[in-house]
């Protein structure tokens, strides 16, 4: 058993090292409440942020947009399922005497701890994906595509860097597809359908836009002529989860949509779709062009795999289409200040599933050699782009200068001055290495002084910066 588990353990450890290599937590308003909820659960046995709210309101200029007062308490303005589900990782802190710490110190610690939690969740999602891909394709391609998922997509530059919704969301989506494949192999094991439904429930509780996963699964089941009894096993838990979410939202926010800002729709999705996939500012094909090989799932050489994994194929395609349409109509489809197509991060697992189904077409003996070489080149390019986002961003400060991208949307189509070129010219974000170096050579007090000199902790800002970020309440 240990011998069989060793490759997965090594994968997890290797990715953990890579994800921590930038030595920094990310200062994001979106992730601030998520970083504090596990501390509230461990220390106060509650999801309310009452311990932190007074300090946040006095020191963080955007506090009012990320914490919500209700019934004499303060709650996250964002969905709480993600941080609640990762809170068991914080249980050792219950014995660390943190109850006596002041809120400011706890907020600083939470910002650091969330990076470890995000890294753990993201690395584990790669392990689960590998287990899934070995059922969809050859072991060799399963490993290739797992590394593509882990290092050549937003999984690295977004999911592994902070407790945004994306990391836990990806894990839930992968889990849904994994148990769906297990059930396809052994239809008599009905509990696999229940497990798939649990993961689908977790996916939309973590990130509401993942609700489209349910119609995607329902459509795939309809095309596969699944029985009513099997529908019930798949969808029973999501219905219960939706009811619980509705009750929480009504209690805290007095309306069903909760504090998570619902995307305001444009009259047409075409501008958003073009920007999400083709723009130099946020285009998926500009930042992660290797996903083009997902189309190989529809080549004649992949016909056997298509028939064998028809349910996975149809669910993945339906989810990709529905999710893209929803995000494309958001008033902030570019994701505010971020690296690459952040809001399309959830598309990564189904795209990798399609690539696995099409792997036989990529590797087909009659395929010209340049085809395989193109896959390697695009995969390496995608890895380099993600590394740029991890080790260089936000240097160059493309998002905010000369104008904020949130007010000047045309900049997203500027081919001469795009985030990749500007960030590359900005150089490596070296401040975390300087702080760690001083901590190792001169001690923690000196590192704290250097941290303040470099101003890398924006949670202490009293006023918004000159070019304010997008409203953290937007998706």
Polypeptide structure, described:
The chain is an all-alpha fold. Among the domains are: 116-391, no CATH class; 430-464, no CATH class. Helices cover 58% and strands 2% of the residues. The protein has 22 helices and two strands. Strand 1 and strand 2 (73-76) form a beta hairpin. Helix 2 (32-44) packs across helix 6 (103-133), helix 7 runs antiparallel to helix 17 (348-357) and helix 13 packs across helix 16 (310-328). The protein is globular and about 60 Å long.
Offer a concise description of the structure:
With 475 residues, the chain is an all-alpha fold. It contains 22 helices and 2 strands. A two-stranded antiparallel sheet has the order 1-2.
Main traits of this protein?
mainly alpha, 475 residues, 2 strands, disordered C terminus, globular, two-stranded antiparallel sheet
Question: What's the layout of helices and strands?
Answer:
Elements: H1 2-19, H2 32-44, H3 53-59, H4 63-66, E1 67-70, E2 73-76, H5 81-86, H6 103-133, H7 139-151, H8 154-159, H9 166-185, H10 191-206, H11 213-223, H12 228-253, H13 270-278, H14 284-287, H15 303-308, H16 310-328, H17 348-357, H18 359-362, H19 369-391, H20 419-426, H21 431-442, H22 444-454
Helix pairs in contact: 1-6, 2-6, 6-7, 6-9, 7-17, 9-10, 10-12, 11-16, 13-16, 16-17, 21-22
